Amino acid sequence: MIALLARDLRLAVRAGGGFGLGLAFFLIVTVMVPFGVGPETALLARIAPGVLWIGALLACLLSLDRIFALDREDGSLDLLATAPLPMEGIVTVKALAHWITTGLPLVIAAPLLGVLLSLPAPGYLWLFASLVAGTPALSVIGTFGAALTVGLKRGGLLMSLLVLPLYVPTLIFGAEAARRGAEGLAVQTPLLMLGGISAGALALLPFASAAVLRINLR
Amino acid sequence: MTDLTVSRGGVPVLEGVSFDLAPGEALVLRGPNGSGKTTLLRTVAGLQPAQSGRIDGAADRIAYAAHSDGLKAMMTVTENLTFWANVFGRHDIASALRDFDLDRLDDRLAGALSAGQKRRLGLARLMVTGRPVWVLDEPTVSLDAASVALFARAVRGHLAGGGSAIIATHIDLCIPEAALLDVTPFRAAPRAAAHDEAFL
């Protein structure tokens, strides 16, 4: 398991591994929003939490199809399936590696990008907290989507269509927690809901992902 | 393995295949392209369920190797092999590198190897798994004569050490211990699939 995690992290940072791709995409989306809606500080401050959350979500989506497709292409996935690792463990490690290489950089970068959108001062902490609580759900749900479409050629678009609706609850509570934080309201409820979504997804979805992966490998 | 029927996409391809494999024995599968050798091997390796019949005492004793070697182009030979050794809870890769004549390539990126060298690395992976039953699908593709001899020696060493192997191949491997099994007589008669294909 640890060997698999170490391998995935190592591959991500080597050439062609796609590390930083999501982060760069996040940066560009966030920078482009003021161009689109105009430089009005009050308006930007109001939409900043939502924009940052949508940007993080799309950046996360960008790297999902690599989770299993590369291993499928070079045969590693077949070999991993015959290895003495439980399939549930493999998908959990894959989701964890995705979170470390995509989710974690987004969490760290989001408060910095908040400056570009004139996010109000109390919002930074809660934006950070909501992303910490919410991005694990994005990775775990995304891994499920990647497992569903692993056997398909050019399955990336189909996967986006499958995964984005599943991201809706995470987005609602995540952006709501960040918005309430920015406006100085109580954030406890949406933050707890968000943590609940992440915990629930982490507890249940690896079993579903492992099951569909087994079917897709046949 | 008793009276096994294996299927691809819900359509049976081989029916009533039975054989025994004792430690130290090898079985070479023969048959024309598309006769179901790969499907049979994937079923034996546990990657897909058998439609009927029984496979006894396999699953966690099998090391499987197929057409693709499961190598990462951006990792070195040593890193690739160490990864697979660790997955199987083992650490020694030196003897596998030596047996497949890879020790001079150990810090080369796998992506920079030739097709034959990649294949040798894929076969060296079998040795680091430490599993007794090797299930090999066309292991000699893109190997030259010298490498085929290396491979045959590795298989014979594995058999002598109490292991066993099932090998699908089209060439003569010069492994005198191996029994031959031609899968052609077991081919299923083509018929319309009457069941729900989506879940098979």
From TrEMBL, chain A:
The way this protein sits in the membrane is described as:
Multi-pass membrane protein
Q: Where are the transmembrane segments?
A: 12-37, 43-64, 96-119, 125-150, 157-178, 190-213
GO biological process annotation, one example: cytochrome c biosynthetic process
Give the main localization category.
Answer: membrane
Cellular-component GO terms for this entry:
plasma membrane
Record keywords: Cell inner membrane, Cell membrane, Cytochrome c-type biogenesis, Membrane, Transmembrane, Transmembrane helix, Transport
* Gene Ontology MF terms: heme transmembrane transporter activity
Q: Which InterPro entries match?
A: Cyt_c_biogenesis_CcmB, Cyt_c_CcmB_bac
Q: Where in the cell is it found?
A: Cell inner membrane
> What is stated as this protein's family in its record?
Belongs to the CcmB/CycW/HelB family.
Q: Which PANTHER family does the record associate with it? A: CYTOCHROME C BIOGENESIS B-RELATED, HEME EXPORTER PROTEIN B
Name recorded for this polypeptide: Heme exporter protein B
UniProtKB/TrEMBL annotation, chain B:
Q: Name one Pfam family in it.
A: ABC_tran
Q: What's the superkingdom here?
A: Bacteria
Q: Does the keyword Transmembrane apply?
A: no
SUPFAM superfamilies xrefs: P-loop containing nucleoside triphosphate hydrolases (SSF52540)
Question: Which processes are annotated in GO (biological process)?
Answer: cytochrome complex assembly
Q: Which Gene3D superfamilies match?
A: P-loop containing nucleotide triphosphate hydrolases
Which residues does UniProt call coiled coil? Answer: none
Residues in domain ABC transporter?
Answer: 1-200
Q: Where are the transmembrane segments?
A: none
The protein's UniProt keywords, in alphabetical order, are:
ATP-binding, Cytochrome c-type biogenesis, Membrane, Nucleotide-binding, Translocase, Transport
PROSITE patterns for the chain: ABC_TRANSPORTER_1, ABC_TRANSPORTER_2
Q: Which GO terms describe its molecular function?
A: ATP binding; ATP hydrolysis activity; transmembrane transporter activity
Q: Which PANTHER family match?
A: ABC TRANSPORTER I FAMILY MEMBER 1
Recorded protein name is Heme exporter protein A
Lineage of producing organism: Bacteria, Pseudomonadati, Pseudomonadota, Alphaproteobacteria, Rhodobacterales
